[in-house]
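Bumping with the actual sequence this time:
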Amino acid sequence: MRHEFGGILGRAFSKIFSHGTALPGAALDGRLAVGSQPVFTKPTADAFSCAAFEQFLIEHRINELFLAGLDAEYCVRSTARGALARGYKVNIVSDGILLLAEKRRDALLRQFHREGVQLVAGDGCLA
């Protein structure tokens, strides 16, 4: 899943704050092992704003998600909440998320847990 900013303001925001990484057509980080799975684009923080993503989950009978991402306080949280509202089991890879203010990490992880999200480490063990 990738976030793409549209419009003039979105493009300017991406260029200034994310070095253009959220512009349409920008390459994913080469360290990601995407494989043959589809890459979806979302217009808002919640990955469920991409109808094709949700349809893919339904068609493949996926009922459990493992989330990681660059913006744990917004995109990861929004997607986790969207998934929980739809009945998915949600896991957040605790060492696979970043926050703008890392000092809020522990509080955010506790909040995720209270909301019903399982926290796992990158090796798949409980965090």
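The tokens above came from a reply further down the thread. The helical segments are 7-17, 51-59, 72-85, 105-114.
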